[in-house]
Amino acid sequence: MTRNEIIKPENLVYKKPTLMNDNHMHYCPGCSHGVVHKLVAEIIEEMGLREKAIGISPVGCAVFIYNYIDIDWQEAAHGRAPALATAIKRLWPDRLVFTYQGDGDLACIGTAETIHALNRGENITIIFINNAIYGMTGGQMAPTTLMGMKTATCPYGRDPQLHGYPLKIADIAAQLEGTAYVTRQSVDTVSAINKTKRAIRHAFENSMEGKGSNLVEVVSTCNSGWKMSPVKANQWMKENMVPFYPLGDLKDKK
Amino acid sequence: MAKEEVVLMKGNEAIAHAAIRCGCDGYFGYPITPQSEVLETLAILKPWETTGMVVLQAESEVASINMVYGGAGCGKKVMTSSSSPGVSLMQEGISYMAGAELPCLIVNVQRGGPGLGTIQPSQADYFQTVKGGGHGDYRLITLAPNSVQEMADFVGLSFDLAFKYRNPAVILADGVIGQMMEKVVLPPIKPRRTDEEVIAECPWATTGKTKNRKPNIITSLELKPDAMEINNLRFQAKYKKIEENEVRFEEIMCDDAEYIIVAFGSQARIGQKALEMLREEGIKVGMLRPITLWPFPTKVIDKLADRVKSMLVVEINAGQMVEDVRLAVNGKIPVEHFGRLGGIVPDPDEIVEAMKKMIK
Does B240 touch chain A (CB under 8 A)? Predict the structure, then answer.
């Protein structure tokens, strides 16, 4: 069988989404960001929204998401992405407007913007990567850092007396009148990736149909920050993160 | 010809009316005295039902300036208004907008500080506005209205300048101009731009990537220092162009003047009364009123300094614009400052007295 005989549409098992460009990614090997980026690109393509999509990137590891997915992007100040998204969606109501934020950006410095955008029922989607640590700045404690977990700023482990408790932002979001869909997913297995893809697509569809605000939390790994191999990080996530941040839909307004 | 529409209203109300009439696409704000009438008036007028303008009360000034960032980044004509403590909260967003080269209008109806200060008028945010209150090397086009009429007129002008140079513009008013009622001729009604017009006018904006162009990215981030230096040099070249082309000022009785009052905004109004009182006593006083605080009318002040004896800078702060006047004068003649603080607005008598003291 020649190479040309193999390259036929019926033999295609995997294809890079055309919206993903060939720029070299800055993410560490094993990081969850690359997988979620690919899902976002695939879904925009499949929904035929490439000319209508406007993304907002955060401050944190995903700040450069605009270098990898070929749509229009705005880069927000730390935590302010939902405020940008609010205005963009209200001024261009037929566009797909979404933010892509990490735990420090969304659940700490940007808590007010997150809660209020969700509570106003802005027709946007917030994709929330929760890896329980500040990746870009070198592994400091996040609002979502687990009890006892060691980071650069809680080197002896997170202690509630010193640092307070991890924040379950999706649980708060599910209580808000303005949210249409709140879910918590992961990307550590193929089936988990498929579920996350369905979740993001559902959220994007809600945004386009004007059903209210949507939050897709992705419980993720930061193997560099956690100082583990990618495989070990996935295992640690399943054993420690998932019991505290259980996966599944928290709210799906019909 | 249609009859001019003359109405009586507050400066803050004039801002709201002018915004709707000049085709503004979105207002994002948060209540604070003494500027709350801007948002209140917009809420009463309901422009979303007529022109389609978006009006939103944000959760904070931090959120409102970032909503302005988002709106400006997608090519729309957007604005916010606040007063001093609220504008302090906006400095992060303003710096980001300067760095991302986004056009917008920010109205600051100043009150006395520092801190929570007072709700009475002040001009103590001059430094914050013209020297850059946020981080980094940037400039804001700053217009200082001295009447309700100028509050109305400067909305459209600010948007024009902001879009011409892709830079934030500020209307730096104070509690006097925001709260006082005067007759005003409202600007003519200009329709909002269509989506197609926005895309054509702002090819850089994030309006959705079409096949025939690359993705548009609105960002102030550039980690490579050599590229970031080039960005900064581009900003500086733009600022130089603005300084060359956009200086605005008013001269009152300067031709035969021996002494000059330099004042902006509300203090130019009070200073003008003092000028008349001094002229009645035979003292030849003129006034220079900077209308743009940045770019500053440096050249005209420099020229005036060649033929007058001294200048008195009147502002309701501890001496801020006086530094720019002294830089312009460059030691050629004495430059004195007169100001009241903490929300106190001086009487013309006090300015007359300060002038006589300077002359003596």
Answer: no
